[in-house]
Amino acid sequence: MEKVIDESIQGSALELASNNQNTRKLFIESYGCQMNFNDSEIVASILEKDGFNTTQNLEEADLVLVNTCSIREKAELTVRKRLEKYNAVKRKVNPGMRIGVLGCMAERLKSKFLEEEKMVDLVVGPDAYKDLPNLIEEVDAGQQAVNVILSKEETYGDVSPVRLQSNGVSAFVSITRGCDNMCTFCVVPFTRGRERSRDPQSILEEVNDLEQRGFKEITLLGQNVDSYLWYGGGLKKDFEKASDLQKATATNFADLLDKVAKAHPRMRIRFSTSNPQDMTLDVIDVMVKHKNICNYIHLPVQSGSDRILNEMNRQHTREEYMTLIDEIRKRIPDCGISQDMIIGFPTETEEDHKDTLSLMKYVKYDFGFMFAYSERPGTMAARKMEDDVPHEVKKRRLQEIIDLQLEHSKYNTHKFIGKTVEILIEKSSKKSDAHWSGRTTQNTVAVFPKEYYQIGEFVMVKITDATKSTLLGEAVSYAKGYEPATLITS
Ligand code: SAH
Ligand code: F3S
Questions:
Q1: At what angle do helices 318-331 and 281-289 cross, to 10 degrees?
Q2: Ligand 2 pocket check for 183: Cβ under 6 Å
Q3: Which domains does the chain have, with CATH numbers?
Q4: b/e string for 276-291 if b means 16 or more Cβ within 10 A?
Q5: Which uninterrupted H or E stretch holds 286?
Q6: 188 in ligand 2 pocket by Cβ < 6 Å?
Q7: Band (486; pLDDT cuts 50, 70, 90)
Q8: 51 pLDDT above the threshold of 60
Q9: For residue 213, with 0-12 CB atoms within 10 Å meaning exposed, 13-18 middle and 19 or more buried, which class applies?
Q10: Is 183 marked within a binding site?
């Protein structure tokens, strides 16, 4: 199961093959969403050219960077604990170590970390990573360094991210940065700034490069991919002011998806995250048109209650969301659909909660990511509303939606039993070294005996059993058109 916030990778320290000329060591750890992990790969790429090789050994690091997340209070607390740990190592074994904070916590907590608590030497926001070499120089000269300026243009389109956390099969490709939607609970518009899109040409080049290096699947990544709009650069909100020519030649998400899928017919294409208010039916039509675009949509809804959706500023009703689901299923009957849900948003009543449960029953999501509301300073909800749903009530409601989701997940995985489905092999199964793990087009994990198959191959797997989240089966053949080249001997 591919998670928006993947708990199993939280805090991973990333390492790549070293460059012999580099003399300094960088330890970089990431928290939060996939976008943050992808940003860390961009940072490692920038610093590789500035004399740093990555290490997984904290004690030997010259520079320790932590890429932070602000989405919920828990994420902030985790990062704070890590900073305490780095400082302890610095005091005891490595006094020359420099410590820096990157990402979403940078803006809000910069003065706290730098001045009040003296926990860090360096604070860098998500749009300022190209400034890192200069900032590190300042730190080397004995100063503290900060750059948390959010940009109108920065998309790192010209930085080729090193692939730190990759299995060599699937990779993430950022296509937009920031978000303009201003959901009232969400800090992203404040921490990551206004929305801007990356040049389609640089996206196509990155995907091309990945294909040449043997990657088989890419996920186009953004806070709200459906809102992608390239008209020569600049903020999404300034599109109104663009010239007629710019408007006529603009590329939207459906166009981009079409271009990427057409240019790389042998690669699986995924995208995340979709937003119900911005997703258009032509995106679904493009999915239908190209066999290599996976039949899977991550479509967060957050609540099933119209009143709460309105308070959240989600810009769509429950009915409109259900119609969108119907339209998706009309065009792609077997489409995998997953959700993000927040329970306990201010003023949420038992009635609102029942609406959430009933919406879930209507959609029967394949899987989902469910959270208790966490008040974030600076957001509209924090400013205007009281966090008034008691902790115990939040806990119970969260458990209810998790239990219901597990039922639906099981219902969906069991529908696969008896079918033969195409799987891209990604890695060894966590539980058994004799089994491969891969995913269906719907993004459901399947596990099966390895036999003679290899990582990165597309195989047909007959599903014989299933747990709540995983399909179990046996490979029956290579997928059609993906047989390994046979040796021609005379
Ligand atoms: N569009 C983004 C959403 C970012 S946050 C994306 O690409 O995933 C991921 C999820 O965290 C949201 O969909 C929401 O369900 C949850 N979330 C965001 N702010 C939250 C808050 N204040 N409290 C609880 N959950 C929150
Ligand atoms: Fe956050 Fe809503 Fe954007 S959840 S990332 S403001 S779409």
A1: 20
A2: yes
A3: 7-147 (3.40.50.12160), 170-414 (3.80.30.20), 420-478 (2.40.50.140)
A4: bbbbeeebbebbeebe
A5: helix 281-289
A6: yes
A7: low
A8: yes
A9: exposed
A10: yes
Tokens, residue 145: 């360094």
> Does the structure show a pLDDT above 70 at 2?
no
End-to-end CA distance of the chain: 46
Closest CA to 31 of 87, 81, 94, 90: 81
**What average pLDDT does the chain have?**
93
Strands 122-124 and 145-147: parallel
State which ligand 2 atom lies nearest to the alpha carbon of 300.
4
HSE-CB at 450 with a 13 A cutoff on CA atoms is 13
* Planar angle of CA 178, 205, 48, nearest 5 degrees: 75
| pLDDT band, very low/low/confident/very high, at 393 (cuts 50, 70, 90) | very high
What does the pLDDT average to over 156-160? Answer: 90
What is the dihedral angle through the alpha carbons of 82, 88, 91, 94, rounded to the nearest 10 degrees? -60
Q: Which residues contact 436 (CB under 8 A, 6 or more apart)?
A: 425, 426, 427, 428, 429, 447, 448, 449, 450, 453, 455
**Ligand 2 atom closest to residue 187's alpha carbon, by position in its atom list:** 1
Residue 20's pLDDT is what? Answer: 74
The finding on whether 186 has its CB within 6 A of some atom of ligand 2 is yes
Q: Report the candidate in 360, 369, 359 with the shortest Cα–Cα distance to residue 404.
A: 360
Q: Locate tokens 């989701």: which residue?
A: 405
- Judged by its nearest atom, the ligand closest to the C-alpha of residue 273 is 1
Q: What is the pLDDT of residues 315-325, one digit of tens each?
A: 999 999 999 99
Once rounded to an integer, what is the mean pLDDT over residues 35-58? 94
The per-residue b/e assignment along 323-360, b for 16 or more CB within 10 angstroms, e otherwise, is ebbeebeeebeebbbbbbbbbbbbebeeebbebbeebb
Tell me how far apart the alpha carbons of residues 410 and 356 are, in angstroms, rounded to a whole number: 19
* Ligand 2 center to 310 CA (angstroms): 14
Cβ(374) to ligand 1 under 6 A? yes
Confidence check: pLDDT of 96 > 50: yes
What one-character DSSP code corresponds to residue 14? E
